[in-house]
Amino acid sequence: MKTLILTTATLLTIGITGMIFLESEAQAQPSAVTSSTSMFGDACKDVKFKVTNKHKEGGQIELRKVEYYNKANGKWQTEDIPNHVMDQGDTYTTSGDNLTDSEGEELTKIRFIYRWKDNRASSNWSDDVTSKDFTPKDATCNAGKIYGLGQGWDITG
Prior knowledge:
The chain is α+β, with helices and mostly antiparallel strands. The chain folds into two domains: about 1-40; about 45-155, Immunoglobulin-like. Helix content is about 25%, strand content about 35%. The protein is built from two helices and nine strands; from the N terminus they run H-H-E-E-E-E-E-E-E-E-E. The relative contact order is 0.22.
């Protein structure tokens, strides 16, 4: 009987010690959980993109989308632009988007999807065209950032 009581007491002590250890481990590592969640979950808010129409045909372009490469997840992501028409020489800054899974991440390449037409009255819009890739000087995404600001990102055709 004494052996049974001693064995039960020992097992309870081991069980309680194990639960305390696991609880302290869980409390000691919340930042690891938080950082991995923020790495793949927070939107980078009110981000804008600035570009100038210097298309070689000298006419208008219609911006349709912006694509950005998120280095952390290794994927191109897309934001729609509400088909904004730009005359030759115009510079446009998008109104601001919340970029999924991008807060604090490096967006290392930016490109625009657009259509163009020359100055002839009979001209029609082209099919969608993808601009060259633009490389930001500072790739880290933060709320309120304007990519292309002061960098002379020109769509040349």
